[in-house]
Design brief:
Layout (H helix, E strand, L loop, with lengths): L1 H23 L14 E3 L5 E6 L9 E8 L5 E9 L7 E3 L6 E3 L4 E7 L15 E7 L6 E6 L6 H16 L2 E5 L4 E2 L6 E9 L9 E6 L5 E2 L10 E3 L4 E9 L5 H4 L6 E8 L2 E8 L2 H15 L4
Length: 299
């Protein structure tokens, strides 16, 4: 009797252990790799995503998505998207030639254009989620959903700039004229900031240029400082700005990225910030020529 009872006990234990093992078996159901359908991975360990921005993207509504392959094998990426509540739609990237190979343990930076900012967002969350579609050799593509990082606050800064630009454009259009008036001695020049009201339907808002920042290439002169606290609204205005080279080292023009972006510190409605006014192509070339000539040794 004792032996028979022991055999029954062992058989019962074996049955109990078998149940969870059977439940864990993969029979090729929906969503499984064995069924041949695309799988979804939530593992954050394969590809990491970080937001950055190069200097030559400043003021151009563009950023970089930096993808890093954390594995020891190459992976092929066919799409990437980033979701942030700061923008009206996802920030998306698709390769121009079908796919992009990420080598093991190496990052690659992908330029993307920012969508319209969600300017009505209050107390926006800084949480970012990313979706990366990729494959490894011999495997079906998967989509990895993971968190992303923005260590330098690139998205918040750009969203703020876009919303400020939208608010400003509703009041006035601000551009730099393409002309450049160089002084007789060649040491200074004048650029003109042209401000045109948006139109009769632009409302009662006013925009105030509180100050104008110098750039890495251009500075104001002690005898003709740039104006402050200029309020714009119903009438077209022009501001002449006397400029001089901010630096004369050999790399000033050759390595310039943002020296011809004029930063205006403005207030419009309940927003304050920096509005960057780009020089048109013709003016940018003239400024480079002026700086080069002004910095040349006399004689």
């Amino acid at each position: 009797m004792m032996c028979r009872g022991w055999r029954l006990f062992v058989a019962g234990m074996a049955f109990a252990v078998a149940i969870p093992l059977l439940a864990a078996c993969d029979y090729g159901g929906p969503g499984s790799v064995g069924s041949g359908s695309e799988a979804t991975s939530t593992s954050p360990g394969t590809i990491t995503v970080e937001v950055n921005q190069s200097r030559d993207q400043y003021g151009k509504q563009a950023i970089l998505l930096q993808l890093t392959n954390t594995t020891e094998s190459p992976v092929t990426v066919t799409g990437a998207r980033l979701h942030s509540v700061l923008f009206q739609s996802d920030i998306s990237w698709e390769p121009s030639e079908g796919s992009l190979e990420l080598p093991p343990r190496q990052p690659k930076s992908l330029p993307v254009t920012l969508p319209a900012a969600a300017c009505g967002t209050q107390e926006a969350s800084t949480e970012l989620t990313a979706g990366i579609t990729y494959s490894v050799p011999g495997k079906a593509p998967v989509e990895q959903n993971t968190s992303a990082s923005d260590p330098f606050g690139v998205l918040s800064r750009n969203a703020g700039e876009l919303c400020l630009a939208t608010a400003a454009a509703a009041v006035v259009t601000i551009v730099l004229d393409s002309g450049l008036e160089v002084a007789a001695d060649g040491r200074t020049a004048v650029v003109r900031l042209v401000m045109t009201p948006a139109g009769p339907g632009s409302g009662t808002e006013q925009l105030t240029i509180e100050s104008i920042d110098e750039t890495t290439l251009l500075a104001q002169t002690p005898t003709a400082p740039w104006p402050r606290n200029v309020t714009l609204g119903a009438a077209k205005q022009e501001l002449p700005l006397t400029i001089r080279p901010a630096r004369c080292d050999p790399h000033a023009v050759a390595e310039d990225k943002v020296g011809t972006l004029l930063p205006l510190r403005v207030a419009v409605g309940n927003r304050k910030g920096v509005l960057k006014i780009p020089a048109p192509d013709d003016l940018r070339g003239r400024i480079y020529d002026f700086v080069t000539a002004s910095c040349a040794p006399a004689g």
